[in-house]
Design goal:
The protein has 10 helices and no strands. It has 150 residues and is an all-alpha fold. The protein has 2 domains: 54 residues, no CATH class; 70 residues, no CATH class. The longest helix is centred in the first third of the chain and has 14 residues.
Length: 150
């Protein structure tokens, strides 16, 4: 059985949980988030620029951190390089990946070492191509994927 991923692998979720612990002295588990009153949950969601629904989805979707790392690697990018050069873009990529409705499909694709059209279903595709074209990743001879109109 694989080891459970640490919160260090999921910076947005880790910061969110740390913030919750500081503000409310809670353990930071999803069940604890559900136990907070609406005002507290709304305040946390607002601080991270999320809807309440997205906040719950992000906290529940711990697999997204590993999937984002794999997706970044496809473009020759790392979280470390993005954190240095574009921390706000990295945070947005993490938020989008963490609230994505196609996480199961993405996980199946990566687990099966295949791509069943990630460029079409991944909501981070256009951002990743833009970062790659900026020269942050390996050079892309084909340019944009075309799914974003770029």
């Amino acid at each position: 059985m694989a080891a459970s991923p640490s919160l260090q692998e999921f910076p947005v979720i880790g910061r969110l949980i740390a913030r919750m612990k500081r503000l409310y002295g809670r353990s930071g588990e999803l069940s604890e988030l559900r136990g907070m009153d609406d005002r507290q949950v709304g305040q946390i969601a607002h601080e991270f620029g999320l809807s309440r629904s997205d906040l719950f989805t992000l906290c529940a979707n711990k697999a997204s951190g590993a999937l984002l790392k794999q997706r970044l690697a496809e473009f020759g990018l790392t979280e470390q390089s993005l954190a240095r050069m574009h921390p706000e873009v990295l945070q947005d990529l993490q938020r989008v990946c963490g609230t994505c409705a196609t996480t199961a499909r993405c996980a199946d694709d990566f687990a099966g070492h295949r791509d069943s059209g990630r460029d079409e279903y991944c909501p981070n595709t256009c951002t990743l191509y833009a970062l790659k074209q900026e020269g942050l990743g390996r050079k892309n001879e084909s340019g944009c994927c075309g799914s974003c109109g770029g």
